[in-house]
Design brief:
158 residues; mainly alpha; 78% helix; 0% strand; elongated
């Protein structure tokens, strides 16, 4: 498989996982979520879809760049991609916990774990490919913001 194909496979995978995790949010966004007290800096609902789509594309490109190095740095790449897969699973799990289970505090705890896994993925990617690591920085930044937002919603709705 060539570099472009690897990138496309991982972009499609990330977008598919994002789409599937979004399924658990749909009904809650219309029923439960509007009833929550939100902080003044809560973005409008319409912004989340485009932002997450963009971030999933960046994640996929990043992961594809790392996967492309598998022939030359097999064990290091396999370890980095394992962390990539774990953070992607945790990303999806947050939506289920927050919107599917309507559990704000548990989602916040899970998001701390997600942030740590993204950061560790960034560190592992940086040792392999600087561009791939840098492509994770907007994601890390958005999850940092989302963590503050999650914590604020948790506090306001205690």
């Amino acid at each position: 498989m060539n570099k472009t194909t690897k990138i496309l496979v991982l972009v499609a995978t990330c977008l598919a996982i994002g789409y599937l995790s979004g399924i658990s949010t749909k009904s809650s966004i219309e029923t439960w979520y509007p009833k929550l007290i939100k902080p003044f800096f809560n973005p409008p609902n319409w912004i989340f879809g485009p932002v997450w789509s963009f971030l999933y594309i960046l994640m996929g490109v990043s992961g594809g760049l790392i996967w492309n190095k598998i022939e030359t740095e097999k064990e290091v790449v396999k370890s980095a991609l394992l962390f990539f897969a774990i953070q992607l699973a945790l990303n999806s799990l947050w939506s289920f916990i927050f919107f599917g289970l309507n559990h704000i505090f548990l989602a916040l705890i899970e998001m701390v774990l997600l942030w740590l896994m993204i950061y560790e993925t960034y560190i592992k990617f940086k040792k392999i490919d600087q561009l791939a690591a840098n492509l994770l920085l907007p994601y890390l930044s958005w999850v940092s913001f989302a963590m503050i937002l999650n914590a604020s919603i948790c506090w306001l709705n205690r």
